[in-house]
Amino acid sequence: MKKEILGIQFDDLTRQEAAQAGAELLAEDKFHYVVTPNPEFILAAEKDREFCQVLNGADLVLADGIGVVYSARIKGTPLKGRVPGIEFAADMLVCLNETGGRLYLLGAKPGVAEEAGRRIVEQYPNIVLCGTQDGYFKDEEAALLKVAAARPDLLFVCLGAPKQEKWMARWGKHTGARLAIGLGGALDVFAGKVERAPESWQKLGLEWAYRLKKEPQRAGRMAKLPLVLVKAAGERFKKN
Fold this sequence. Notes:
Helix content: 40-55%
Order of helices and strands: EEHEHHEHHEHEHEHEHHHHH
Strand content: 5-15%
Structural class: alpha/beta
Strand order of the largest sheet: 4-3-8-7-5-6
Distance between the termini: 24 Å
Number of helices: 13
Number of domains: 1
Number of strands: 8
């Protein structure tokens, strides 16, 4: 079931339901892509029609940020919860490990994808790491050819929004992958370069506050959270 939040159609799923849906997509012999919007995505999509269309055209649209969950609640159309992209990605790795599938990592700074891949294969030994490519490429078609030559089943695209979503929508079906996921800075987490918030912070929906504590330079980006809540409140007020 879809729920519209400020122009974006989110799938109303728990993490377990999202994992099941993702596993079904990964099993199909055709291309699918998944997006994980947070409040920044929503605000950017308001000004970028193509980005909005790409988000709404995804096979799964998962609420990554707690701000999305709060906005849905304020609007009176609550979601079952948030499904962080990093957790959905981990669930897909479990699925891929069960089938001995092929994984390609695209994005992040030079060396990060390789280290992320090394750690992933260490944890999931049945996965075949078929290739990596940093995100600092200028020729999109050349990057596509490199991915396609590796014949992945699962593709993590970590180029930052909206580049990663537009890349998946434009080139994904030519990669040969069954499932591509836009994951922002997830490779830094998989590579051990960035630490996730402790579980207690995550359960309270305060992962954003932990990141701000660790990375004060993100203050400008975090300021967008209350703006989305205000917009959601405005939409509900109009309906009433």
